[in-house]
Amino acid sequence: MAYFGISSIIIVLLRLATSAPSYTPILPPSYPLAVRNPYLNAWLPGNAAWNLPFASAQFWNGLNLTWSVIARVDGQSYSLFGVPSLGPGVQAGVLQSADYTSTHTTFTVTAGSATFVLDFLSPVSPLDYVRQSAPFSYLTVSASGIDGASPDVQIYSDIDNTWVGQFDPYIQVGWGYTLTNESTSIMTLTPGGKPTYSEYNDTAQWGTAVYCTKPSSDSTVTATVGGMNVVRAAFAANGSISEPWEWQYASVVAYSHDLGKLGEKKSNVTFAIGYWRQETINYLGDDRTAYFTATCADPQCGCTHVLNDYADADAEARKLDAEIAAKATSVAGANYSDIITLSVRQAFGAMDLTISADKLDTADPLAFVKEISSDGNVNTIDVIYPMAPMFYVLAPDYLRLLMEPVMRYMASGGWPLGYAIHDLGAAYPNATGHNDGIAEEMPVEECGNILMLAYMYQQATGDKKWAEQYSGLFQLYADYLVENGLYPTQQLSSDDGLGDIANQTELAIKAAIGLNAYGVMTGQTNYSDVGKAFAKTLYDDKDGTDDKRTHFTCYQGEDESWGMAYNLYPDVLLNLSTFPTAAYAMQSSFYPTVRMPGGVPLDDLVDWGKTDWMMFAAATAVAPDVSNEGVRDMFIDDVHAYITNGINAVPFSDKFHLQDNGSFVTGQWNQYLARPVVAGHFALMALDGPSQFGKGAAEPKKAHGDGGDEWVQVVYEGPAA
């Protein structure tokens, strides 16, 4: 064991001295690999990319996942990815480059006389509900000879029980191997004796991990189950695997593709990795399943479907990648594009798009989002609110899909209080409401949010009927703001730094804009008049500003206090004119005066910033007749400097330290990671209008069984403990 440890160190040092990988567009804190929902959510720390052959994939919270790729080139085996300890006769490939887009992460590795491209694709297809909800991600490995060489190549890959949330190598899990009549090879892993809808350290404890592949035109496939070291050694020795078909200590499920002699063209093999939860969400005691289930009823069909869909999914993804990058660059430059493209998969990867498990009614899709890493709540309204700009740009119907479960619950009478609920369930995936009325108390925050979100959806889609069916509730929340919005009592807001204090100016701003949005949405001008009167009190009468009117205060009556007025943004986006342009200009001009070394804090009580709210403030700074591009660029450059500083190695954290304070350094992430609120980075793009890359909502699709791909045989199967 000591011999191989020393050898690995020597190899790493040699690679450091001889290679200099390129990173495009930047080296991010973490690369998304397979990011499709809260439980299929795998990343690679950015600081491990240079050492890719030894690096481990990680669940979003840092738990290591076994996922390896090994290549055999002319009889010599090379680790390309995910092999922390090289076995006998295995060398390490050399990373040449790493790249990410909105949907792809790509690594180029040389090994012997071959070049390999590892392409991790997590499709983002918001207007195709089947594709978007498929609980699978792709890995494609392409091989080509170097300088005209035509080496003999085999490609190996494996996963283990970490993908079903079992991190003890001694644990027995259920496994199976299926071969379909379309030559799809399917490996499954299932934990035993775990309750439905249970978690361990945020990993799902029910469901089935799926790893599948099929032969390409250039390859033949072999597969097995067995001890990791035994199976990998067999591949290294033979270029294929066949034994032992027995779950042992530290076992894996594994595939080998034999590509033979490479010709002049690249040869590709594709794997699909998935996490199948037949029961996906517990919604008020009823099971919801992935929308995809209406197309495929089991993992076997699902594997065949997604592998057959790969070419189309990849083409759509590359088109979207190009469109998003070009648009973001045209809006605010290359730095903004880097931020946006790193945010897309993370945001969509926190959601499940579902239908009834019993009825499979595709006319009734509902979306659920996990408040990843902060508290795990389901469909938190003040998480949907910062996510809204991305949906506005890409697929406004998701605003309705996420709000509908909440509104349906509140309309049922389950929530007993006279203001909007904070979330639909304390712990994902249990969207069971709060019939006891005990939930995080943020009444002005959530009433204002839900009114603005409803109007944002209506303005983006032209759909007035959805809001009309909940007109009584929306009026209830508007009336609550009329009575309680201008001088809020002691309560929480989305500004976590403040705690529960009274008279928060940001809450009063939200109430004003929320009331105006409700009035415009319903044609009840009296509510708009109240909202504008609130704004006059806050700005013209200085109840919400300092006496010299240089900035909005953090809480009313304290001139020295200040906060980031991110809630002004919807006023600009929706062209509501609740506040005068001078208010946007005042606040935007103030931000540079309170900027710390790493950026502008959320308020005067903290030394950390929030990237989503920074982008809301950046967008407000370029409101019509304000056009403060300098402040916009300041915010963008600060966020960009943070994600490129090289000191963080977690999925995009929206919260980071802005100055050295003895415990933390400038630019260090703080507390949150992998959260969906990074969708708020689309705030600047959203100013150009809704549905920028396609119109409307997805068309519901009828259920049609399992797609017609019957499996030929279950070759091997092992029980769970």
Short note summarizing the structure:
The protein has 721 residues and is an alpha+beta fold. 31% of the residues lie in helices and 22% in strands.
Question: Can you walk through the features of this model?
Answer:
By secondary structure, this protein is α+β, with helices and mostly antiparallel strands. It has 18 helices and 29 strands. The protein has a ten-stranded mixed β-sheet, with helices on one face. Strands 8-7-6-13-20-19 form a six-stranded mixed β-sheet. Strands 25-24-23-22-26 form a five-stranded mixed β-sheet. β4 (57-59) and β5 form a beta hairpin. The longest helix has 23 residues, at 310-332. It is globular, with a radius of gyration of 26 Å.
Calculate the mean pLDDT score and round it: 94
* Whole-number tally of structural domains: 2
Q: Total number of β-strand segments? A: 29
List low-confidence stretches. 1-17, 702-715
**What class do helices, strands and sheet pairing give?**
alpha+beta
Number of helices, counting only DSSP H or I runs of 4 residues or more: 18
The rounded Rg comes to 26 Å
User: Which outline best applies?
Assistant: globular
Give a short account of the largest sheet. Answer: 10 strands, mixed
DSSP strand content: 15-25%
- CATH-assigned fold name of the largest domain: Glycosyltransferase
Spatial order of the strands forming the largest sheet: 1-9-10-11-12-21-18-15-14-29
Terminal CA distance reads 31 Å
Assigned CATH architecture of the largest domain: Alpha/alpha barrel
- Assign a percent range to the helix content: 25-40%
CATH C-level of the largest domain: Mainly Alpha
